UniProtKB/TrEMBL annotation:
<dbReference type="Pfam" id="PF01202">
    <property type="entry name" value="SKI"/>
</dbReference>
<keyword id="KW-0547">Nucleotide-binding</keyword>
<comment type="function">
    <text>Catalyzes the specific phosphorylation of the 3-hydroxyl group of shikimic acid using ATP as a cosubstrate.</text>
</comment>
<keyword id="KW-0057">Aromatic amino acid biosynthesis</keyword>
<keyword id="KW-0418">Kinase</keyword>
<keyword id="KW-0460">Magnesium</keyword>
<protein>
    <recommendedName>
        <fullName>Shikimate kinase</fullName>
        <ecNumber>2.7.1.71</ecNumber>
    </recommendedName>
</protein>
<feature type="binding site">
    <location>
        <position position="58"/>
    </location>
    <ligand>
        <name>substrate</name>
    </ligand>
</feature>
<keyword id="KW-0963">Cytoplasm</keyword>
<feature type="binding site">
    <location>
        <position position="117"/>
    </location>
    <ligand>
        <name>ATP</name>
    </ligand>
</feature>
<feature type="binding site">
    <location>
        <begin position="12"/>
        <end position="17"/>
    </location>
    <ligand>
        <name>ATP</name>
    </ligand>
</feature>
<dbReference type="InterPro" id="IPR027417">
    <property type="entry name" value="P-loop_NTPase"/>
</dbReference>
<keyword id="KW-0067">ATP-binding</keyword>
<dbReference type="InterPro" id="IPR000623">
    <property type="entry name" value="Shikimate_kinase/TSH1"/>
</dbReference>
<feature type="binding site">
    <location>
        <position position="34"/>
    </location>
    <ligand>
        <name>substrate</name>
    </ligand>
</feature>
<keyword id="KW-0808">Transferase</keyword>
<keyword id="KW-0028">Amino-acid biosynthesis</keyword>
Amino acid sequence: MAPVCVLVGVMGAGKTSTGLLVASGLGVGFRDTDSDVEALAGKPIPEIFVDDGEEHFRTLERAAVAEALASHDGVLALGGGAILAEENRAALAGHRVIYLSVELTDAVRRVGLGAGRPLLAINPRATLKHLLDQRRPLYTEVAGQTVVTDGRTPEQVAEEILAGLADDRVGRPAGPPAG
Ligand SMILES: Nc1ncnc2c1ncn2[C@@H]1O[C@H](COP(=O)(O)OP(=O)(O)OP(=O)(O)O)[C@@H](O)[C@H]1O
Ligand SMILES: O=C(O)C1=C[C@@H](O)[C@@H](O)[C@H](O)C1
Ligand SMILES: [Mg+2]
């Protein structure tokens, strides 16, 4: 069992909002490792960061990513920083990974003051710039496809993803071509 697709990207890329739309369009389930981590810890992400620290959050996240890749057969969204762990990047090999890209202007607009996102608690704009610069190469490394989300609605982004998935099914016939 493997996810239909795995969405990666920085905070505000729209992994959760777009992922829910793609899953609903396909009639499959949606899973988000951020929610899985919260379930594992029994508390919201900001509280994990405050009580236990980022390192503990990343440990729970690695467990959540491995579990979800092995057991979820719908659309999967990864936490924005999941690709930092070499273990997670290696685990993504062979999966259909889609990078939802967003540049600074739109990302900042979308996350606002970073409510619920502990890494953005101080100076969200500068932090997001740093995270984008640091992570862009990692998102690109793990992804087989990049979908640009700047200036587009989650519905438009979901439509492009759904079209790509449908095309791919057409491009992979079960048997040899007729004739
Ligand atoms: N393409 C888009 N256009 C405009 N707004 C968007 C778009 N995608 C998401 N948003 C809005 O941006 C905010 C952040 O989106 P979302 O929570 O889906 O991002 P995320 O990638 O899951 O972030 P995180 O990594 O923090 O979980 C939400 O308020 C959402 O409605
Ligand atoms: O970019 C990150 O490192 C994070 C993104 C969110 O999805 C959460 O996983 C958490 O707030 C950390
Ligand atoms: Mg999300």
